[in-house]
From TrEMBL:
Keywords: ANK repeat, Repeat
A GO CC term attached to the entry: ubiquitin ligase complex
Protein name as annotated: Uncharacterized protein
Domain of life: Eukaryota
Ranges annotated as spanning the membrane: none
CDD domains: BACK_ABTB1_BPOZ
Record flagged with keyword Repeat: yes
InterPro entries in the record: ABTB1, SKP1/BTB/POZ_sf
Lineage, uppermost ranks: Eukaryota, Metazoa, Chordata, Craniata, Vertebrata
Length: 138
């Protein structure tokens, strides 16, 4: 078995998708998930959505939840939320936004101590402030 490199993984992913090779797509998703960073999480989330890589998408949203206080300062992240809100067909003003829901879930999912509760509260507040700033209700 050959290991994928970051140099080739996107090309292999495109070919795997074109030829309907789900096992190879999952391997590509796993490789991409191991390379998650602040600099590429938005790109990898978009890739996960495009190629229907649910595990990679979940890894990305979990990572976004961990670094949400940094992400809310990034205009690209604000655009990502706006785009995700716009992609919901027939979305009403107060309907949920899938990306935001997933991030909220990951922020709250492992809260077990008082310090973790406070940290989660701060992360939720940062996300809510961004949503207010870009006029997204959800």
């Amino acid at each position: 078995m050959t290991n994928l490199t970051m140099d080739s993984v996107f090309d292999v992913l495109c070919v795997a998708d074109m030829y309907l090779l789900p096992g190879l797509k999952r391997l590509c998703g796993k490789t991409l998930g191991q390379a998650l960073s602040r600099n590429n999480v938005i790109c990898l989330w978009k890739t996960a959505r495009l190629f229907h890589l649910s595990r990679l998408e979940d890894q990305c949203t979990e990572y976004m939840a961990k670094i949400i206080e940094q992400l809310v300062l990034d205009p690209e992240f604000a655009e990502l939320i706006k785009d995700d809100a716009a992609s919901v067909k027939g979305r009403h003003e107060t309907d949920s936004v899938p990306l935001v829901d997933d991030i909220r879930y990951h922020i709250s999912s492992n809260v077990q101590t008082y310090s973790a509760i406070e940290e989660a509260r701060q992360k939720h507040a940062a996300l809510e402030q961004l949503l207010n700033d870009i006029n997204i209700e959800c």
